[in-house]
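Write out this protein's structure.
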Amino acid sequence: MKKTMVVVEDHALIRDLWVKIYEGKGDVEVAGATGDFEEAMELVKQHQPDLVSLDINLGEYSGADAVPLIRQQSPNTRIMAVSMHAQPNYLKQMLALGAMGYVTKSSPHAELYKAIDEICAGRLYVCEEMRQYVG
């Protein structure tokens, strides 16, 4: 059974690449992709995806702003924070808000795919680069 996903990334080129990478996994269907905060919340509400791939930097908003709203609009949707930031404060903030995973943009495809499987199975996943910061 395919996992449904919404991709939230403010850079169009990177967003398109994420969609190709995620759909390349074979068991993922991207239900929507956007860089706009309000549109992202609407896509989540409409599709109730299994997973949201959420960039932390979203222009005037942040992924931290989005996590509580996603959890409210779609309680069964899991959230994977995807960021260029490898600082522990970002990781800890996103997990404290309810994200089930954190991967950096330097993570390889195989690790992204593992993160998707782990998070969708209800397990916390933190990429290798950031794992040392999880207690």
